[in-house]
Amino acid sequence: MDKIRIENLEIFAKHGVFPEENFLGQKFVLSAVLHTDTRKAGLTDELSYSVHYGEVSHLIKKVVEENTWKLLETVAEATAKAILLSYPMVSQVDLTIKKPWAPIGLPLDTVSVEISRGWHTAYIALGSNMGDKEKYLNEAVEKLQQTSDCQVLKVSDFLVTAPYGGVEQDDFLNGALALKTLLTPQELLERLHEIEQEAHRERLIHWGPRTLDLDILLYDDLVLDTPDLIIPHVEMHLRDFVLIPLAQIAPWKRHPVLGLTVSQMLADLQAKQES
């Protein structure tokens, strides 16, 4: 990926843990590396195919000047988010914020915080088998779209499937969506749980009936195993009600552990079911 660099942008602002810092202010020095594809801009000499570094510089200045925070970490997060949301061609931003002569009672040149933030692609399974199933699924899609750190890219058709897991209950309506997000996997999980709770989801019976079920299937090519979140989803390759809608929107997405595409996993599963 190509890079556009903004080096040592000086901004006077009011950030710090001490009241006098928030009142008097001081100089901050920011540098940003914008990850973007400059190929078309280079071939056409058209600015519209690139990222206007002057506009980005003024956006950084606006965010840093017009807010007051205690921590450099907060300044960095807010600035990176503003850049990524404002410039779709930027896939990642590396940001460094330096604070010269920080008041720590010792001689130093600067303290600094450096972060890298960027867009990720996640695939989410949707399911419902209580009440107005289609309404619950459509509302979940809309709520993810309304989440400031998320953009819904594709949504599959919804299909009716038999319940999974041996619990007697109504048929499910299932689907899948592709999501562009700035959220970490854990933050995304928390957001999905919030949406489920807003649909009055109750976790009473394992594999039992539910108004709304939202699961992270894949997150980039991440392999993650924690007590509350496993990515890729541990049973996605065994569930046709997951693979059928996922194959509709991402047939060539490859499972980072099995090495198979979604289409290949679906074909293998259907072959086993027919044998």
TrEMBL record:
Alphabetical GO biological process terms: folic acid biosynthetic process; tetrahydrofolate biosynthetic process
SUPFAM superfamilies (alphabetical): 6-hydroxymethyl-7,8-dihydropterin pyrophosphokinase, HPPK, Tetrahydrobiopterin biosynthesis enzymes-like
* Pathway participation: Cofactor biosynthesis; tetrahydrofolate biosynthesis; 2-amino-4-hydroxy-6-hydroxymethyl-7,8-dihydropteridine diphosphate from 7,8-dihydroneopterin triphosphate: step 4/4; Cofactor biosynthesis; tetrahydrofolate biosynthesis; 2-amino-4-hydroxy-6-hydroxymethyl-7,8-dihydropteridine diphosphate from 7,8-dihydroneopterin triphosphate: step 3/4
Query: 7,8-dihydro-6-hydroxymethylpterin-pyrophosphokinase domain spans which residues?
Result: 206-217
Among InterPro entries, the record links this protein to: Dihydroneopterin_aldolase, FolB_dom, GTP-CH-I_C/QueF, Hppk, Hppk_sf
Instruction: Tell me which EC number(s) this protein carries.
Output: 4.1.2.25, 2.7.6.3
Top-level taxon of origin: Bacteria
Its family remark reads: Belongs to the DHNA family.
Q: What is the name listed in the Swiss-Prot or TrEMBL entry for this protein?
A: Bifunctional folate synthesis protein
Biological source species: Blautia faecicola
